[in-house]
Every structure is written in C-alpha cells, then in structure tokens.
Amino acid sequence: MDQGPRRKPFRRNRSNNGLRPQGQRPANQRPTGIRPPGDGRYAAQNARNNYERYTAMAKDAARLGDDIEAENFYQHAEHHFRVAKGQEH
C-alpha cells in the first residue's frame, strides 16, 4: 500500500554544535549589574519619568478614541507609579 510521500526524519538544529542554546552566555560573561550603584534615587527617578511618559501616551490614545490602547498605557503607568512609590523612603 502506498502511504503517501515519505518525510525526512526529524533532525536536530546543529547550528550551535550542541554546546548551549543560542542567546545564552556563559556565567563568566554575564553583566554583573544592571542598575548603576547608588542609593536607589536613580531608579525612582526613572520610574517617575516612565510614569509620566506612559500617562501622556494614555491621554493621547484616549484623545484619539483608542480606549484599549489608552487602558494599556494607564496600566503601564500604574506599574511605574507603584515602583516609584516603593523606592521612595
């Protein structure tokens, strides 16, 4: 009986020679820190700036009549508001 066209057997992607998944660096090549050293004022200021930026984008989207996009931006703004409040002490 004819079983239709034969498929090639599944082959592994060998582009990285099986050493490690692409996109991952060895532990000794990872960045040591993401935030600059300091007492957290830089991160709080960054969160406040992001809050203002997302609030402005939300208002623009609402003015254009895109309620879903506005709500999305308001949710992002709320997240950054909470981050800024959590880092102020």
Description:
This protein has helices at residues 41-63, 67-87. It is mainly alpha-helical and 89 residues long. It has a domain at 39-87.
Quick structural gist:
With 89 residues, the protein is mainly alpha-helical.
The biggest beta sheet reads:
none
Task: Write down the overall mean pLDDT.
Answer: 76
* SS strand fraction: under 5%
Category by helix and strand content = mainly alpha
Parts with pLDDT < 50 across at least 5 consecutive residues: none
List keywords for this structure.
mainly alpha; 89 residues; elongated
Write the layout of secondary structure elements.
Elements: H1 41-63, H2 67-87
